[in-house]
Fold:
Amino acid sequence: MKSKFQPDENGYFGQYGGAFIPELLHPNVKELADNYIQIIESEAFQTEYKALLKDYVGRPTPLYLAKRLSQKYGAHIYLKREDLNHTGAHKVNNTIGQILIAKKLGKTKIIAETGAGQHGVATATVCALMGLECTVFMGEKDIVRQAPNVARMKMLGAKVVPATSGSKTLKDATNEAIRYWIQNPATFYLIGSVVGPHPHPDMVARLQAVISEEMKWQLKEKTGKENPDTIIACVGGGSNAAGAFYHYMEDQTVELIAVEAAGLGVYSGESAATSQLGEVGIIHGSKTILMQDAYGQIQEPYSISAGLDYPGVGPLHAHLFETKRAKFMSATDNEALAAAYELTKIEGIIPALETAHALAVLPKIKFKKDQVVVINLSGRGDKDLEIFIKNLEA
Amino acid sequence: MKKLNTLLAQKENLLSIYFTCGYPELADTTAVISALEKNGVDFIEVGLPYSDPLADGPTIQDSSQKALENGINLDIVFSQLMSIKQSNQTPLVLMGYLNQMLKYGEEKFCQQVVDCGIETLIIPDLPMVEFENHYQALFDKYGLTNVFLITPNTSEERIRKIDSYTKAFIYVVASSSITGAKGEISKEQIDYFIRIKAMQLKSKCIIGFGISDKPTFTTACAHAHGAIIGSAFIKHLGSHGVENIAAFIAPIKA
Structure:
């Protein structure tokens, strides 16, 4: 049976998706589109992928009942601890999978874009693991605000190329990665989120789906039921949310909440709340919801979090938003910071700034008694210490 | 304005120049077109500045950025093109990205293009499958023609299909690269041009990407119906201004 949330043959989730690529990329993208499902579903891939996720990444990640957080907000709040993955975030689920696909396709040179640097580090890591050449494109502005991750990538042997065009953040890093890919079609573009031309959004969602796959049996063990009432995840491009939602999308009884970065306020002019501010458009080869002006020029988003600072959202999420399957909320810089400090103080976990946006909606939701909530704790906050220190309450 | 197809049928060794609207100054669009016409350029590729031009190299990106900073937008471009509709005789081809058309309104966009006397579009991020499923009927309705690009990696089957859809010309991308002057044409590129020519396509082929001067233009013309120069012209325009366009074109035409 064809699911409502799987792409059609041209890569469309409802009206969103597709592959709007220059002809130069056609052979590359077609090769991947023709092969990715077969590769992912093959026994050889699954065996190697699962083994690496277990022994190298440290999966399954724990599903932790955050007692003090639960007490404070009057619900049973579980944290899916993606922050405990090797390299500190969910990103590595995808890079492990894609590097195996790249190898299967005989690719030896890997390129990637990165915002907060988490995907760049995860890509540099798997390239080191497999002995493949790695180039990571990163916005000049992000290179400054995420310095520890830049150092990590370099130590891992990756070349970090600053993106100096446009807003000098994730959008521009992605542009530069795609331009390089056009010039060097033999390279494998290891994309970091559920964005880009088909089949990238679907491929990345399938590789992140391990998050919700584990949630099912972990919840069953802990609560007796596979389904939570609510899943909350932050959304920039949307890969951690896609992974956390994946196996629950068809089941309408599970509430899905996607949290976008509102920066200084959704309507402040300094925001990255794409679903609220965007309209249908094309970015990075995909038709989706996009922040743009009256003439289709892509606007520069803003968020304190480099990983959410993106003017679009993956086409699957645009579809989840339009069909109202997922509820979209937002959190400002200050709300995210407050949520990060709170989790640190009452649970002893320093979350990534991106993840803090998901936590920041807790005070805005009225929970029912015994409501089971899973928050995808997508990454750890080590990389954000400088920002946390700067903003510490006196 | 002359018909592009008449030109393609009657003349060989066509020289086409790409320029970015609203660059170097907002009002320069019409002056650049007039100067190119005066200097004997056969047809002109009119670039619509875009914030995220994925298929363009640094030179055209920078010119687009500057034009956007100058305040250019689609309404201004259309009014500039309308103002020279009567005087300009050189065929114009409009090049922009799909999102610009999408946001402006596809029907409204097509109508404006036609009103400006233009009948040919180059949209580098419009792939063939989307053209077939969503745009072919729309363009037909307005009498607009889409130019497809082919590259060294485009399969023969796909080239044949593109040939069947082509009503103006096929844009032969000279190398696997984004736009930007390269300096010379390699043996591999010439082999690729020869391979395309040997396919005896019904459509005329125009070579672009990496064509920058007299020698590269001449080589391209030996293997195709003409060639397009983009980045090299934008560079010249940026440093020497609209008043010195003749200095760039004359040596190529010589």
